[in-house]
């Protein structure tokens, strides 16, 4: 399971980029968070938590590197706040309609 | 300890919660999400929905790239996992595409904030 927290404005580029490479299945949700920079200060206003999009993709082990490369490339702007990617293990995936296991 | 992440239809949410309650699995975290699966969202061309030529010209045939879903996160003891997966699959099965997926992920530990219990006692 790959969880990528990206900028809302790059989220579409990331999802379209993944779809172009054949990784159609994903879940996304709006989240709020902050990172090492502790939010954002503009003038006198401090934004503690910034809006981001969390994209969840579950892929086979062999595709992980490719997915990472696509996300890194599409979500990159160079400034702080581009986001993070987390990779965690999934033991089993079940399709509800058929009851079959596997992605 | 296992984390069960189920992505289901929003309309089946109440039924699922009720069934889980009945089977003594009351603790659920739910959130609204957007997602798509092997069918690539709702695509009028792939799913065979008739589209008028006018709509085609205007480009109104993109369907939906993402479909609204509900994500349930349940952290359960190892021995309860099969039971919960069974409940969720039985309640959510309609036979049509878009019924959802269930992912089972390993979880190392859990902690109850109020009592500071850890491990299975915290669930």
CATH architecture label of chain B? 2-Layer Sandwich
Helicity range of the residues of chain B?
Answer: 25-40%
The general outline of chain A is elongated
CATH level 3 topology of chain B: Alpha-Beta Plaits
- Multimer state: heterodimer
Number of domains of chain A: 1
User: Which two chains share the most extensive interface?
Assistant: A-B, 22 and 36 residues
Relative strand content of chain A: 25-35%
Instruction: Give the domain tally of chain B.
Output: 1
Write the layout of secondary structure elements.
The complex is a heterodimer of chains A (103) and B (123).
Chain A: E1 2-6, H1 8-20, E2 26-33, E3 40-42, E4 45-47, E5 50-57, H2 64-74, E6 83-87, E7 92-95
Antiparallel strand pairs in A: 1-5, 1-6, 2-5, 3-4
Chain B: E1 2-8, H1 13-22, E2 29-36, H2 44-47, H3 53-58, E3 67-76, H4 81-92, E4 101-106
Could you explain how this protein is built, in words?
The complex is a heterodimer of chains A (103) and B (123). By secondary structure, chain A is of the alpha+beta class. Chain A has one domain (2-87): 2-Layer Sandwich (Alpha-Beta Plaits). Chain A has 2 helices and 7 strands, in the order βαββββαββ. Chain B is an alpha+beta fold and 123 residues long. Chain B has 4 helices and 4 strands, in the order βαβααβαβ. Chain B has helices at 13-22, 44-47, 53-58, 81-92, and strands at 2-8, 29-36, 67-76, 101-106. In chain B, α1 packs antiparallel against α4 (81-92). The mean pLDDT of chain B is 86. The A-B interface holds A 1, 15, 19, 24-29, 56, 58, 88-97, 99 and B 2, 6-8, 31-38, 40-41, 65-66, 69, 71, 85, 88-89, 92-106. β2 (26-33) of chain A pairs antiparallel with β2 of chain B, so a sheet runs across the interface.
């Amino acid at each position: 399971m790959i969880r990528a927290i990206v900028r809302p404005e790059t989220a579409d580029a990331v999802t379209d980029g993944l779809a172009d490479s054949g990784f159609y299945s994903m879940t996304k949700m709006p989240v709020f968070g902050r990172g090492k920079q502790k939010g954002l200060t503009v003038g006198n206003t401090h934004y503690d938590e910034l809006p981001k999009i969390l994209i969840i993709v579950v892929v086979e082990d062999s595709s992980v590197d490719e997915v990472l490369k696509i996300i890194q490339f599409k979500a990159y702007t160079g400034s702080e706040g581009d986001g993070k990617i987390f990779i965690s293990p999934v033991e089993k995936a079940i399709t509800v309609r058929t009851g079959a296991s596997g992605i | 300890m296992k984390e069960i992440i189920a992505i289901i239809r929003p309309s089946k949410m109440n039924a699922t919660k009720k069934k889980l309650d009945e089977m003594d699995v009351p603790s659920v975290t739910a959130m609204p999400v957007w997602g798509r699966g092997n069918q690539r969202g709702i695509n009028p061309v792939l799913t065979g929905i008739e589209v008028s030529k006018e709509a085609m010209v205007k480009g109104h045939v993109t369907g939906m790239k993402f479909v609204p879903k509900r994500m349930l996160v349940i952290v359960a003891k190892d021995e309860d996992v099969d039971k919960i997966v069974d409940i969720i699959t039985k309640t959510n099965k309609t036979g049509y595409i878009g019924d959802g997926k269930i992912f089972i992920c390993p979880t190392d530990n859990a902690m109850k904030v109020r009592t500071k219990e850890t491990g299975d006692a915290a669930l």
